[in-house]
Amino acid sequence: MNKKTATQCPCCSAKLYQDCCEPYHLWQKNAPTAEILMRSRYSAYALQKADYLIKTWHPKTLPKQLADEISEAKWIELVIHKSWDSDTPNEAFVQFTARYRNSRGKAEKMHEISRFIKHESHWFYVDGQFI
After folding, report:
1. For 22-76, how does the pLDDT look when each residue is reduced to its tens digit (9 = 90+)?
2. Domain covering 17-130, topology
3. Which of 58, 86, 99, 114 would give a disulfide with 91, using CB separation of 3.0 to 4.6 Å?
4. Domain extents in the chain
């Protein structure tokens, strides 16, 4: 009998993956907020789920070399500093720090304010500003 092992979610929410980001990755439900989409996208990077990243990235800003970026890093930790809605309807921001090891094994971090847009019932990552 092959049982699925319960594991912590890579997004650092302290929840099990099956109860956190997995339902979004399996398209069982839509992320209700920009912050939850941010967490699910971080987990998708950590788990190398390129299809999810592509489908949750706004088509106007989707990079052509995404697959290479996904496979190069080992994602270690996500810290959400804050998230907020914009004055513009259906726009939100998430400030976070993500720690990872690059392809040479060197520890690095990325501190960013990401911008998200909601279209119909779906949030999409648009772009980010490094801090």
Report:
1. 999 999 999 999 999 999 999 999 999 999 999 999 999 998 877 656 777 899 9
2. Nuclear Transport Factor 2; Chain: A, (3.10.450)
3. 86
4. 17-130
